[in-house]
Design a protein that fits this description.
The chain is an alpha/beta fold and about 240 residues long. It has helices at about 20-30, 50-60, 75-85, 100-110, 155-170, 185-195, 200-205, 210-235, and strands at about 5-10, 35-40, 65-70, 90, 115-120, 135-140, 175-180, 195-200. The relative contact order is 0.16. The structure holds D-xylitol-5-phosphate (DX5) and zinc ion (ZN). This is Ribulose-phosphate 3-epimerase.
Length: about 240
């Protein structure tokens, strides 16, 4: 059955001097989540925002807060983000061993939040094998994490398809989220491959009319999803 994709605008590309205004704007435009990119200057070169920002966002919006932890020590910081009101927390497979990943997922679930695991572009889909049945969402990075405004890495859609297949094979159905270089040209590729949630930084916030830009990405992705469903039916 057709389900529209959800757009998760990344506030890394928002205007921090007018963050409240930008949040209201994406709420009215029909965003599905607020994507919060947490970077520690260690796991990735860039340093962005942390727990105090998540706390403030929680007061400012009813949209679910989708917190993407690009940090080296997620197990230590997780409880703070959960306390601050994160609705979904993503940890990176490269930051933890299999036992650490399992502990992170358990801690997120114990707080009543959704758990996601992310893969950098060069990490093989197979890294998800131990956890694919336990996560609510998988995040496929389609750029090297660290900065917004980069170009989509070709072939990321094939990785989405592989992960969707891996999940089906074990009877799991995590949402698949794609992050990096999403726009009207690239969103249809990953949506056709099985992506459910699209993170958009620059495509939304650098646009002259962010609400129209969000709607355009959503429409392009949904059209590709409908077409992919139709071709399955015909086959
Ligand atoms: C990159 C971040 C992304 C980024 C997306 O490390 O995880 O969420 O801000 O920005 P765009 O959509 O501009 O590539
Ligand atoms: Zn992100």
């Amino acid at each position: 059955m057709f389900e529209p994709v959800k757009i998760a605008p990344s506030i890394l590309s928002a205007d921090f001097m007018h963050l409240g205004r930008d949040i209201e704007l994406i709420e009215r435009a029909g965003a599905g989540y607020v994507h919060v990119d947490v970077m520690d200057g260690h796991f990735v070169p860039n340093l962005t925002m942390g727990v105090p920002v998540v706390k403030q966002l929680k007061k400012a919006t009813d949209l679910p807060l989708d917190v993407h932890l690009m940090i080296s020590n997620p197990l230590e910081q997780l409880p703070w983000f959960l306390d601050a009101g994160a609705d979904s927390v993503t940890v990176h497979a490269e930051a933890l061993d299999a036992d650490g990943l399992a502990r992170a997922i358990a801690a997120i679930h114990a707080a009543g939040a959704s758990a996601a695991v992310s893969l950098k572009p060069r990490t093989a889909a197979g890294a998800l094998a131990p956890v694919i049945g336990d996560v609510d969402m998988v995040l496929v990075m389609s750029v090297e994490p660290g900065f917004s405004g980069q170009s989509y890495i070709e072939g990321s859609d094939a990785k989405v398809a592989r992960i969707a297949e891996m999940a089906r094979a074990v009877g799991a159905a995590p949402l698949i989220q794609v992050d990096g270089g999403m726009g009207v040209k690239t969103a249809p590729l990953v949506a056709a491959a099985g992506a459910d949630v699209l993170v958009c930084g620059n495509a939304v916030f650098a646009a002259e009319d962010p609400a129209a830009a969000l709607a355009a990405v959503q429409a392009a992705a949904d059209e590709a999803r409908v077409a992919a469903l139709d071709s399955v039916k015909e086959a």
